[in-house]
Amino acid sequence: MDRLNLLSFSPFRLNRLATEFSNALAADYARFGIDIPEWRVLATLGQHDEPRSAAYVVRCTRTHKSRISRAVSHLIELGLVERQEAGDDRREIMLQLTDEGRATYAELVPILLAREATLLSGFSEAQRRDFERLLEVLEDSLGLVRCREE
């Protein structure tokens, strides 16, 4: 019988690393009263000047729509996100950061980029470029959307 060494199984290793990265960053979001799914919404909307749909956030983050819906509701309660009706399709709800949401995003981004730099500080510059390239290869092989545009 074949045996699987879980600690050398790539999907498990990637998941474990992702969990540790997320947990390391979660303390930074918590200071702002938000959790990981809420940060994903804030970060996705923060990349754009124009509103984006909740479906767009779901596609970009690969987070279940119910978790995104709960995250959006909490962000609205916090005054960080606002809903808008889509001009041509009244069924679709568009989301946009409020001024307070943009300020929170602007405050969090440098903190998180510094944390990322610390987490990746063991890489040489060449290793970091290779790591980014390999992540893109994996994302492409899984058909993950990069969501630069809707």
Descriptors for this entry?
three-stranded antiparallel beta sheet, globular, 3 strands, mainly alpha, single chain, 6 helices, 150 residues, Arc Repressor Mutant, subunit A
Break the fold down into its secondary structure elements and pairings.
Elements: H1 10-30, H2 36-46, E1 52-53, H3 54-61, H4 65-77, E2 81-85, E3 93-97, H5 99-119, H6 125-141
Give a structural overview.
This protein is mainly alpha-helical and 150 residues long. The chain has one domain: Winged helix-like DNA-binding domain superfamily/Winged helix DNA-binding domain (Arc Repressor Mutant, subunit A), CATH 1.10.10. Helices cover 61% and strands 8% of the residues. It contains six helices and three strands. A three-stranded antiparallel β-sheet has the order 1-3-2. α1 (10-30) crosses α5 (99-119), α2 (36-46) crosses α4 and α3 crosses α4 (65-77). The protein is globular. The protein starts with 9 loop residues before the first helix and ends in a 9-residue tail after the last helix.
